[in-house]
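Notes from the 1:1 (GR / supervisor)

We went over the backlog. Supervisor wanted to see one worked example end to end before approving the batch request, so GR pasted a single chain during the call. The sequence is below; no edits were made to it. Supervisor asked that the structure be written out right there so they could see what the output format looks like.
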Amino acid sequence: MAKTACIFPGQGSQYVGMGRDLYEADPGARECFDEADRVLGFGLSEICFDGPEERLRETRYTQPAILVHSIALWGFFEQSGMRPDFVAGHSVGEYSALVAAGALAFGDALLLVKERAEAMYSAGLDRPGAMAALIGLPAANLPRLLEEAGKAGVIAAANYNSPIQIVISGEVEPVEAAVEKARELGAKRAIKLNVSGAFHSPLMEPAEKRLAARLRETGFSDARIPVVSNVTGAPVSKPEEIVDLLGRQLTSPVLWNQSMQFIREQGVTSFAEVGPGAVLCGLLKRIVPDAECTSCSDGKSATEFLRGVSA
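Structure output shown during the call:
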């Protein structure tokens, strides 16, 4: 049987109406959304289903929305008895991966993601920042770009999303300078992102400290499935390692390209993106072109994938 990995999306995959079909059709998914409303203390399901889009796009709502949608879909995998060989999640998607791996209870994940989102939102207000996606920049030219733009302030690599896509993050002036300079250094495109802060950069240090305290208070278990960490691009399973890496994640780059390469090197050929959208499947085509990736963004696609795996 082919080795399989489940990957969980992060911020940017949300859309108004997400999860409504799951809620209406599947009792397990309905319980996920209802539990989220109870635990979080506000109507997250209403924001997911009805928006408005501007509200759903706010970090404090986006992050728990993506977690809940992903775990509602993960219920189909649990019911089938299918266990992937690896799991990984992009940024906040790592919390979904940890729930799937049995390392973190769903209720605890909701509280952690709420704290994480609020901490990141507050940090963005206190120290406004920006992010930009660089398409086609030769990797060898990234240090020079960061060095030159860094003369204007704090800037860092935030996401290594694929061999041709790197996201940078930092204070507004250096990020804008990098966008202007990127084409000179070989980038095909440089696009500022619509975000509320400089995520995965040193500007998130206050959020990291705030989240670290909550992480230490939360009970984690040994992961039943290896979780490939954003920070290291390598598998993690022990609670103390998980807590440390989740804290560091907020100021460290997301090594997604490296994580997917690692999983492929372990013989995995089949990937399922479990959650809203198909962003990660798109990135995976650039990273490991010979791998198959299925977007399991609703009950029908998840069921069809699981039927194919068990066949």
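Supervisor's comment: The two ends are 10 Å apart (CA to CA).
Batch request approved.
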